[in-house]
Amino acid sequence: MNITFKKHPWLIGLAISLPFFLIGTVSVATAQMSKLICQRAESEQGICELTRVDWLGKISTKTWQTNEIQKIEFIDDGQQIRLLTQKGEIILMPFYESVGRMSNKWRKQSIVKRIKAFFLNNREAEQNLMIEEDRRGIRYIDGIFFILIGLTCVIGGLDYSINMKKRIK
User: Fold this and answer.
1) Which own/partner pairs from 37-42 qualify as long-range (CB within 8 Å, at least 24 positions apart)?
2) Digits of tens for pLDDT over the chain (169 positions)?
3) How far is the CA of 101 from the CAs of 94, 143, 153, 169, in angstroms?
4) Could you tell me the CA-to-CA distances from 165 to 3, 91, 118, 156, 158 in Å, in that order?
């Protein structure tokens, strides 16, 4: 069984489309909304809730006391914050927008500074902290765009294949 591109030119369209389908699918699958809400009482003890909604609408929630935090780490070159507790780790949402890493450098630094101040019980920190990141819209648009490019490649390959067969006859 010898499959060549001359006999089956639609395979070229399929081969070219696969990366676009993959990028589109990954983009849609990583779409999520994250919301961090923390409240601190006068006693400097507080409670936090991290809620995530994934691309399928599945909601997951984690709740913890601020005094449970043993260590705060910055991972992924400062893009994410990891809170270590006795029960395990809590990874907070990435604080960047999909449109460009450098486009919101100061916004990201501001958010990280607010979170760090809150968890380190800084006197100047806010009593209530709420941060929300919703990347679903841009991820859906990106995903659909790449999937449409992939479909165009497949259709173009099939059209080319059909036209080649008509010319041969």
Assistant:
1) 37/128, 37/129, 37/130, 38/66, 38/118, 38/128, 38/129, 38/130, 39/127, 39/128, 39/129, 40/66, 40/118, 40/125, 40/127, 40/128
2) 455 556 666 777 788 889 999 999 998 888 888 888 988 876 667 888 989 888 888 999 988 888 888 887 777 666 667 888 888 888 876 554 444 444 556 666 777 777 777 777 666 667 888 888 888 888 899 999 999 999 888 888 777 766 766 666 6
3) 11, 19, 30, 54
4) 16, 56, 68, 14, 11
